[in-house]
Design brief:
Helix content: 55-70%
Number of strands: 2
Number of helices: 31
Strand order of the largest sheet: 1-2
Structural class: mainly alpha
Largest sheet: 2 strands, antiparallel
Radius of gyration: 29 Å
């Protein structure tokens, strides 16, 4: 039996000590539990209440860790998830609550981690309008926001993921939890929390869910939650501001949020911080990247003032000896270059653009990888127009070049100028480094969307050998190569009638048949 002290805390009785040893022995014996049937077998011997009471009483860290691990495994199965987490018995709930409110991180971290195992089941049991009860909804909402405010990052982030999913599922069910005043009030309270880490987590939650649908966005705006979340960026604390920059970039993901940020009062602060030479560089770099992303998606106009500021920042960062500043320049150029206006701007300042291209020749693999990802964004068809193809062909022809300047000519004959770029690309495709091959495949995947890219790639002696016969280094490269092959095999444009393309496709089909058993290693 269990006894309690005058504060209501569980205490050990002799019978309880014997029971605890049996629970731990049973847990050790069943650590490799494999299915719901085995969970039910365990629950015929010991109840969830007995297991959690053991956790509250044991002083052994080893026992705590093993039992927590066991409960997490059990909660992977519905047969364990429901009785351990969703039981509403009045004798069980206080024991679960002692775990949730416990000072021991190992104990209180058990519940959010276990909840993540089956979030749809959790939502349906607690929050669904058809099956959830108001009492349970309010109880679990308080628990989740309690976890969100936890001082330990893993617990707080776990709760953030749970809340995000719960809200997402409520939107899919055509309900919106903001209509629940208690839920809404807890978001509001946490946005004003004394702890900056908590405020940033809630800011992340609000901005993430604002991207779910325009209806959700309107609700957040209606109750002032989005404005309050975005305003956290104006914190005087540097670390808070840095965290906010990362989150604010998510506002570029939907049309309604791009419009919102472009009209928001915080935009003035962003522009000031991006181009203020006295700003902390990490803030400056990330805010400038956010602005370039917003420009690339049409949320902000690239006016003369912003253009001039970008030139100053990129001129300094592309010449810097600090890697962080180089990486910032690479990211910003990628987003700017993905737009018609931005690419024109960069080509007008060829010295900056050629220094950017020189990062593609860096011996620093991290710099080169970032460059390849950035260059793929520039070559992306999304956001560009057919009129840009000759300009994009010219930009591609500069890949791998160590020239210090270049002048774009509208009448340039691109077909005879891409040999060096393809040599550079194939050196990376055949590189022993998986990251570099993935970066090169990202560029290849973009350029075959254009006539110049498709035409020139099929002329390369190594193209068929690489696509069909070479082994992939990873699942990612395997999938990317297959995506490119599928694109070329299913090409139904004017290229299908071109003799050169037909020969290439037919040869590829024959080689694929001969290599059907090829696998990635």
């Amino acid at each position: 039996m269990c006894i309690r002290d005058r504060h209501g805390e569980l205490q050990k009785a002799p019978e309880r000590i014997f029971e605890m040893s049996r629970i731990f022995e049973e847990v050790q014996r069943r650590r490799g539990i494999r299915n719901g049937e085995e969970v039910l077998e365990f629950l015929q011997v010991f109840t969830p209440k007995q297991v959690l009471e053991h956790l509250l009483l044991t002083k052994s860290d080893e026992e705590k860790e093993q039992i927590v691990e066991f409960v997490n495994t059990v909660c992977s199965f519905r047969e364990g998830y429901v009785p351990f987490l969703l039981e509403t018995n009045k004798d069980y709930v206080p024991v679960l609550e002692q775990i949730i409110l416990n000072e021991d991180e190992t104990l209180r971290g058990l519940v959010p981690k276990a909840l993540e195992k089956q979030l749809k089941l959790f939502y349906e049991s607690v929050y669904s309008k058809s099956t959830g009860s108001k009492e349970e909804t309010e109880r679990w909402t308080k628990y989740l926001f309690h976890f969100l405010c936890d001082r330990e990052t893993p617990i707080g982030l776990s709760s953030l993921r749970i809340l995000r999913k719960v809200i997402e599922l409520s939107v899919e069910e055509n309900t919106w939890l903001l209509e629940d005043g208690a839920f809404r009030d807890l978001i509001d309270i946490c946005l004003g929390h004394d702890d900056d880490v908590t405020r940033v987590r809630v800011m992340d939650l609000v901005i993430e869910v604002s991207n779910l649908s325009e209806a959700v966005f309107i609700q957040l705006l209606k109750y002032g939650l989005l404005d309050k979340a975005v305003d956290i960026y104006n914190s005087a604390d540097l670390l808070t501001k840095l965290a906010c920059v990362e989150i604010l970039q998510k506002l570029g993901d939907t049309q309604w949020n791009r419009k919102y940020i472009s009209e928001s009062a915080v935009l003035k602060s962003l522009i000031k911080d991006a181009f203020n030479p006295h700003s902390e560089f990490y803030v400056q770099k990330n805010v400038a990247a956010l602005l370039s992303k917003l420009i690339s998606r049409g949320a902000i106009k690239l006016n003369d003032a912003i253009r001039k500021n970008f030139f100053g920042l990129l001129d300094a960062c592309t010449q810097s000896r600090f890697r962080e500043e180089n990486e910032g320049a690479i990211e910003i150029v990628g987003y700017l270059g993905s737009t018609f206006e931005g690419l024109n701007m960069l080509l007008d300042r060829s010295a900056i653009f050629m220094r950017y291209l020189a990062f593609g020749l860096s011996t620093d693999i991290n710099i080169k990888r970032k460059f390849l990802n950035s260059f793929a964004i520039i070559m992306s068809k999304e956001g560009t127009t057919p009129k840009q193809e000759n300009k994009l062909a010219f930009v591609f022809s500069l890949l791998g070049s160590n020239s210090t300047s270049a002048v774009f000519n509208e009448d340039i004959e691109y077909a005879s100028t891409t040999a060096g770029a393809f040599n550079y690309l194939f050196n990376l495709l055949l590189s022993p480094f998986d990251d570099l091959e993935i970066g090169a495949l990202g560029i290849l995947r973009e350029i075959i969307n254009y006539e110049f890219g498709l035409f020139e790639f099929t002329k390369q002696p190594k193209s068929l050998e690489y696509l069909v016969k070479s082994h992939a280094k990873s699942k990612t490269t395997f999938d990317m190569k297959n995506e490119i092959k599928e694109k070329m095999l299913n090409e139904d444009s004017k290229f299908r009638s071109a003799k050169w393309f037909g020969v290439f496709v037919n040869t590829m089909k024959e080689m694929i048949q001969q290599n059907k058993r090829a696998v990635f290693i």
